[in-house]
Amino acid sequence: MDLQDIRRQIDAVDKELVSCLEKRMDLVSQVAAYKKASGKAVLDSKREELLLQRIAELTANNAYRSAVLATFTDILKHSREYQMKVLGEDADESLS
Asked: Which pTM value belongs to this model?
């Protein structure tokens, strides 16, 4: 397989990732609406800790685990920021 073939495969995976991330953000929007209606806080540290543990367990290749966890940590950060935007909160104030 040459570099162009590999890059085409990466492009196809990227397309799938974007679709999955958009679906995830649709669900994050629903979470934000629920939290707004119920007065719940955006940050749920315990939930995030459990989620990252589960992601680590799902990562089959140990060599990729730290990169996968870093990616999900970033996804969670951006999800929180989006929820705060929906709720009209300042990110710096809500997470301190």
From this structure: 0.87
